[in-house]
Amino acid sequence: VKNHLDLLSQLMHNFDATDYFGDNAVAQLECLNRAAEFVTSVGKLEKRYMALVKRLKAAYDVCCGSESLSQGERDRVHFYLAVRAVVYKLTRGEAPDAAQMNAKVREMIAEAIRASGVEEIFSLGEDGADTIDIFDDDYLARLDKIKLPNTKIELLKKLLAQALGDFGKTNQHKATEFAKRFRALVDKYNERKEEDAFTVEVHKEAVESLLALMADIKTEMGSFTALGITVEEKAFYDILKHVAHKYQFAYDEERLLALAAKVKAVVDDQAQYPDWNNREDIKSALKVKLIVLLKSNGYPPVHIDEVYQGVFEQAENFKAHRV
């Protein structure tokens, strides 16, 4: 424990934690949130910190009752664990078990998470529903109130990951495209953090880029209405359009919309049995019907396998997430 406290002290030597160990509750909460912001400011620092505190906790679990530990050392252990809990909640969703901490510190962690805006964002609209509408203006307004830039960016990353997960339940192909854009933004963000040159302008650029991506996802999720087709037909439409674009063959838009609806009808007909995706006879029949359908509609058959694979995966995706 003493060794890891020393290592963490060196790691955090540029952070002033004095307020945490004072008597001002507001200052203590602000210190916890500033510490979480400090830890998440550089990727390498965050990984190192989280790993050290994990080992610190494992050691502390063994000897927490020892008289060899002073009260000051126990307080420092609680501080590092509290910061880790806030960072964990911010980046992964669930704060680690804080059962060993006294009631005051446990409440402080909960309050710090609430004060940072993280808990508030994720608890909005809780009425028994498993999912939340992260595109609601109220969410974005509350998100805007978070003043700690790294905290805001980490929360935006979580919200986007959730949005893509929800979108992928209805349109796997488009969700995958957006996921690639998201990954590129996150990689760029992480690379800038490692350069220790994460300025106000760079923070602003990162936030604006993530918000722009969120807006594009929202627009895409409702785009099926403008096309006059259902959300499920739009998923098959995107697959057909992607293959046509990839291999550069022309296909009239109106015909493509009609073909997507026909593909959806074929899939519904073949996928009416609960175990259809585990039956080779049904899968084979689906492929044959798709080949006949595409050929009869003049959709170039040279890339049938890619079309079939995309349609089959999307059909399985629908099956997995239908209520």
Estimated radius of gyration: 26 Å
Task: Show unreliable segments.
Answer: 124-130
Instruction: Report how far the terminal alpha carbons are from each other.
Output: 50 Å
Number of helices, counting only DSSP H or I runs of 4 residues or more: 15
Q: Give the mean pLDDT.
A: 82
Q: Which geometry do the CA atoms define?
A: elongated
Category from helices, strands and their pairing: mainly alpha
* Percent of residues in β-strands: under 5%
Main sheet: strands, sense, barrel: none
Order of helices and strands: HHHHHHHHHHHHHHH
- Beta strand count: 0
Work out the helicity level: over 70%
Any overview of this molecule?
With 323 residues, the chain is mainly α. Helix content is 73%, strand content 0%. The protein has 15 helices and no strands. Helix 2 packs across helix 5 (103-116), helix 8 (149-168) packs parallel to helix 10 and helix 9 (172-194) runs antiparallel to helix 10. The two termini are 50 Å apart. Residues 124-130 have low confidence and may be disordered.
